Amino acid sequence: MNKGITILAVFIFILLIITGIYFINDTPTHATKDSAIGVIPLDAGMIIETKNTAKLIEVINKKQPMLKEIKQIGLFDGAFKIVRLLDSISGTQKEVVQLLENRASMVSFHLSGKRDIEKLFAIHFSSKKNAEKAKNIIYNIAGKEVNIKERNYSGTVIYQFRPSKNSSLGNFSFAFHEEILMLSESAILLESAVRQADASHSIARQNSFAKVYKTAGKNALANVFLNFEMLPKAIVSILNGKYVKSASEITRIANWAEMDISIKESEILLNGFVWADVYDGKYLSIFSEQKPQETKIISILPSNTFTFVQLGIENMSNFLEEFNGYLQQNTENKVYDRYFSRINSKYKISLKQSISSIIDNEIALVFTTGNSSYKTPYAVIEVLSKEVARTQTNIILQTCAKRDSTYKNHEPLLENANGNTYEIYKNPFKNLPQMMFGNIFAQAGSEWFTYVENYMVFAKNVDEIKEFVHYYEAQKTLINDKEFNSFFAKLSASSTMFFYADIKKMLHILTEYTKHSVSKTIDKFNPKLRNFKTLGYQFHAENNLIYNTMIVTYEPATKQNTKSVWETRLEKKATIKPQIVINHYTKDKELLIQDAENRIYLINNAGKMLWKKEFAGKIMGKVHQIDYYKNNKLQLLFNTSEAVHLLDRNGNYVDGFPVTLQSKATCPMSLFDYDGSRDYRILIPCADKSVRLFDKNGVELKGWVFKGTVDKAVMSPKHFRVGKLDYIIIADYLKTYIVDRKGKTRINVKTDFPKNENCIFAVDYSRGKEKARFVTVNTSGKVFFIDLKGNTETLGLRNFSHDHHFRYFDFDGDGQNEYIFLDNNELHIFAQNAEQKMFHEFPVRINDEPLIFSFSSEKHAIGIFSSTEQKAYLFDSYNTQVKGFPLESGHLFSIGNLSAQSSDFSIILPLSDGFVYCYKLTMP
Question: Which terminus, N or C, of the chain has the lesser number of Cβ atoms within 10 Å?
Answer without folding.
Answer: C
